[in-house]
């Protein structure tokens, strides 16, 4: 894959890492970055990760052959729809948002015929934010979900898959709704539950937390504004996830109430089996 | 602190690490270990971490000046009570159990006058088990809770505090019930919740888990039998913890149901503040 001009909109951890990854692999002749904080942009320029900086995506995207939107999930559709009429024919637009159904639904059928959008979600987040944590190998060995619907242009889909593969990612193609249902359980529920667990900790108990508490709640340090957007866009799957969790917690509660050792043992053993399997099947992304 | 003969009952991660820590710091002339798996015991001997091995605590504890019980929480009181009549006068008995109230309650008032017990809990667990993960610096910089009740002998308490400090631990003295209430929130609830989160994951979603899910659920890989014992011994505090968590999850649910962005944002921001403070105040045990 060889891109002439790549535009990256949003210069956080993901946008910054895409810039570095593309530059290190020589995948684009020219990289344009769109951000809103002068300091971040200057750093990206100084680091040689980008060739030109912009403060308005409407100035950068018209020059691009491929544009990746790495902005908060509630801005992506709006930014893409506003830029679309100004785009070069044949441009590929994609994103890195943690939700997919609402974004794809909002964009689909509303683009000019010469502009294609394919949704993406690299599963390479972190509770760390900002381009200072950017890493050109962030996507190496990680899964990126690329979305496909009945309306997705097949060449644009192929190019999107190739783009993420070029950055070292393992690509899974699925429909946007399946993505959101799955990520509700693998990412959004953990975030919500970690936040709930932290919020019931009285401050004076901080000294009695150890590695277990730290690991379990690490993601609760994520950016609240970003996560509010993600949770709201995936609210239906999350409500279903909360129902499922409620059933599971009720099983634990009943076993505790009745001091039912065999059931408690079985619930914990079942969880251990699933968790252990995870380490074995997914060691490539550990 | 200088011990003549130390007995360690139970040769898992904690027992093994105590052996190594004491040996490396030259705190005891002779270390006896009591276990039940020949292979583990041979390894401990070969490694030079212990001087003598036993398969029955009733043979080792009578020779000891200090004995530390690192067996599952439901065995500790029983083992201590059975060994007590055979102990040398002035012996100090302590433990490393993750619960304290039931253990202290079962032992207190039932020991011969020449035998003292003080409860301990080093917060240095791991989802890793077994002496092969033992580490002589495991307790360095970690908190150990030492329990005190109206009946606790003050010299035995001082010696117990000194023992853990000699291993590099930071000691907090508290009553057993306060320990259990606190640990319910900082350790036992996270374990239960991580297990519940894992158990609602359909196996085909494994490929869509990333670092967030891994961190959040890591402790669910802990030993089910050990954790069943811990959760049951602390069931009342856990039931109270489940109530608290239920309130917090209900707030998230309501905010999602009503698409209430400001409330969701506030809930996440509150959690982030608590979580961030944890990293700052507790960096010594990170």
End-to-end separation of chain A: 27 Å
How would the global form of chain A be characterised? globular
What structural class do helix, strand and pairing data of chain A support?
alpha/beta
Strand content of chain A is 5-15%
Poorly predicted residue ranges of chain A: none
> How many E strands of chain A?
9
| Largest interface between protein chains, with number of residues from each side | A-B, 89 and 89 residues
Number of helical stretches of at least 4 residues of chain A: 11
Question: What distinguishing features does this structure have?
Answer:
alpha/beta; 6-stranded parallel sheet; 3-stranded mixed sheet; homodimer
Provide a short characterization of the protein structure.
The structure is a homodimer of 286-residue chains. Chain A has 286 residues and is an alpha/beta fold.
